Amino acid sequence: MTVKPLFFVCAAIFIVATSTPVNSRDNGTAENANTAGATDSTDSTDIAENEWESAILAFERWDSMNSFPADAVLFTGGSCVTHWRSRETFPRMPVINRGIDRACINDIISCAKRLILPYKPRVIVVAAGEHDLIQGRTADQVAEDMLALVTFIKNTLPASRVIVLSIKPSEKHLSLWPMTCQANAFIEQICDKDDSLFFVDVAGAMLDGSGKPNRSLYTPDGFELNAAGYKTWAMMLRPLLAMAILPARSPANDVGMSRSGVSPQSGAAYRTSYAPALYYVASKGSKIFHKSTCRSAKRITAKNRVRFDSRQQAEATGRQPCKVCNP
Ligand SMILES: [Zn+2]
Predict the structure, then answer these.
(1) SS3 (DSSP) at 10
(2) How far does residue 299's CA lie from ligand 1's centre (Å)?
(3) Averaged in consecutive runs of 10 residues, what is the pLDDT profile of the chain (327 residues)?
(4) Domains of the chain
(5) Would 51 disulfide with which of 23, 69, 180, 311, CB 3.0-4.6 Å?
(6) What is the whole-number distance in angstroms between the Cα of residue 312 and the centre of ligand 1?
(7) pTM
């Protein structure tokens, strides 16, 4: 399968089907202080459409009474965003959280004019696609939808950088994991082709040594992330976010560039010059992790490869460092 045909379906970008009704209990500009009662469900048909509208209205009402930061980092996506205490996680960053519980990618697109555009964020972090798969979208369709979303953002906010997080595994929907891997691979290819797009594979770090979702990172329902899960995500996202938030050609940026040789504007440059120095790999069924450059690492097939952006993440899955490459 190839992702190339996806690029010929761009025409459908702005023609978005009527969105699936979703709801959200988040009405804070910068944080999801109130996600109580928000639950995962595969069934969104019982949620009244006006609840989706009311979620957006709640954001707009909040915005009319409060200011929101300029050059923000805006998180958007489904329940893994609404449950994320993203401002607490990144206290030094101007974070705005605009997740909608159970939102699919098309939901985000259909409300992007109200959910994303008003803030003109410098960085947009997208964590979506999980509910799409749960509701029966295929990996191809999810990738097409993600392409539509990032293309919409690029066309309407050309100065913004977009970070797409991979779709996480979950024990609750374990049967979807192979399709999730496919969707993630397609989405990574989309990001690889565009310098303004960054892809962070948070999914691999959610697996334990046996390749199953690591229970210690999830709430008891086996679906949502717990504090340790979000900590893992934050660890993977933080270095990239710190670079992406820098304005182009600022003195700070110049320092960053001279240290890492990377422009925060370039996702491809990040991946080729910077990411390889950071990442580690393991085979799904193996208790050993390697530097990505290790000969043993290169023998792991793409299908079985689990990726970590730090040593700590690899160790958090219970794996031991390889004695040859000594990661
Ligand atoms: Zn090794």
Answers:
(1) helix
(2) 10
(3) 39 33 35 36 43 84 92 95 94 94 92 95 96 95 96 95 95 93 92 86 87 93 95 91 73 34 40 48 91 77 82 90 87
(4) 28-266 (3.40.50.1110), 280-321 (no CATH)
(5) 23
(6) 16
(7) 0.67
